[in-house]
Design a protein that fits this description.
Layout lengths: L1 E9 L4 H11 L8 E8 L5 H13 L5 E7 L2 H4 L5 E4 L11 H22 L5 E4 L4 H10 L9 E3 L2 H15 L6 E2 L2 E3 L7 E3 L4 E3 L5 E3 H5 L2 H13 L1 H9 L5 H16 L7 E6 L11 E9 L2 E4 L7 H25 L1
Parallel strand pairs: 1-2, 1-4, 2-3, 4-5, 5-6
Antiparallel strand pairs: 7-10, 8-9, 10-11, 12-13, 13-14
Helix pairs in contact: 1-10, 4-5, 4-11, 5-11, 6-8
Bound molecules: nicotinamide-adenine-dinucleotide.
Nicotinamide-adenine-dinucleotide binds next to helix 1.
């Protein structure tokens, strides 16, 4: 049994936290021989509820779980952590302007970036989930200059999983038979869910390009893409709460693949700091097709981009540039 790793979850008293913590603590993500100490951060009024979550984690009787540190202090929460899952964010309230929401989140992620810089291990892996996830991740990374920008990522795996599931439903296969799907851009309704390079293994064992398996380009353009882009809103409309179970599952998928690697014949989607690949402005946190190995990631190169795809990729990049500029304005 190796030394315990310290994993921070912020917003841990919230609904994603509640769906996530069991999977982190029982070895589903970092392995069945990896002991873990959970650091749970939330705001002061949520500490009572957080205490209840700690009771429940104890009651799960999990041998890998060595300690649960509940706190409202960044100095405690970020101390010596190996992994940070930044879920807590300012929610949009009735009548709140987008600009005010962004400014509130910039404050949170600026402070948490500085706390990472000061207290976390320099090898810490950071996953930003709280929205606007890409821009929050950018702000966090900018405020943690001593930590390599490759250690920062934001969650677009939920969108990726949604895209796989929609294709699987359409073709009549299980989701594991759909590979090489990509989410490009922002975790927002401008994202581009792309199946132009995806492959599907049919129930007869034959593997085809997703376009040939689906045989319905109109469905791809006019149903599949908007359904994936607007799935988050559809869940809020139906549940009156945002996605939590599927978000927690996606967080686990993202972290597990970063830790243990992606399969040879597949890739995943992660929001990462752009190195200029595919003409996306350097420095933006943009979702790309990603392969992971040895706890590092790389952008899948060489995928053909036609004019239609280029337009969609540019549109979502432009939204991110606007968010970034607004966020930087808010820090002045
Ligand atoms: N990227 C994605 O795919 C994705 C998917 C689903 C939800 N989200 C986002 O995740 C976030 C959390 O969702 P939820 O459903 O768990 O919300 P929630 O409101 O149930 O929980 C959020 C928690 O964060 C806490 N919090 C607020 N500010 C904090 C701060 N500064 N420090 C620490 N904790 C703080 C709150 O007290 C609350 O307990 C939201 O921003 C949501 O939009 C992202």
């Amino acid at each position: 049994m190796s030394e315990p790793i310290r994993v921070l979850v912020t917003g841990a008293a919230g609904q994603i936290g509640y769906s996530l913590l069991y999977s982190l603590a029982n070895g589903d993500v970092f392995g069945k021989d990896q002991a873990i100490i959970l650091h749970l951060l939330d705001i002061t009024p949520a500490l009572g509820a957080l205490g209840g979550v700690k009771f429940e984690l104890e009651d799960c009787s999990l041998p890998l779980l060595r300690d649960v540190v509940c706190t409202d202090q960044e100095t405690v929460a970020f101390k010596d952590i190996d992994v940070a899952v930044l879920v807590g964010a300012m929610p949009r309230r009735e009548g709140m302007e987008r600009k005010d929401l962004l400014a509130a989140n910039v404050r949170i992620f600026k402070s948490q970036g500085a706390a990472l810089d000061q207290y976390a291990k320099k090898t810490v892996k950071v996953l930003v989930v709280g929205n606007p996830a890409n821009t929050n991740c950018l702000i966090c990374s900018k405020n943690a200059p001593s930590i390599p920008s490759e250690n920062f990522s934001c969650l677009t795996r939920l969108d990726h999983n949604r895209a796989k599931a929609q294709v699987a439903l359409k073709v009549g296969v299980t989701t594991d038979k759909v590979r090489q799907v990509t989410i490009w851009g922002n975790h927002s309704s401008t994202q581009f869910p792309d199946v132009r390079h995806a492959k599907v293994t049919l129930n007869n064992g034959e593997t085809k390009q997703a376009y040939d398996a689906i045989q319905d380009e109109n469905w791809i353009k006019n149903s599949f893409i908007p359904v994936v882009q607007k799935r988050g809103a559809a869940i809020i409309a139906a549940r009156k709460l945002s996605s939590a179970m599927s978000a927690a599952k996606a967080i686990c998928d993202h972290l597990r693949d970063w830790w243990f690697g992606t399969p040879n014949d597949d890739w995943v989607s992660m929001g990462v700091v752009s190195d200029g690949s595919y003409g996306i402005e350097k420095g933006l946190v943009y979702s790309f097709p990603i392969k992971c190995q040895n706890r590092t990631w790389s952008i899948v190169q060489g995928l053909e981009i036609n004019d239609w795809a280029r337009d969609l990729m540019t549109k979502t990049a432009q939204e991110l540039i606007q968010e970034r500029d607004d966020a930087f304005d808010a820090t002045k």
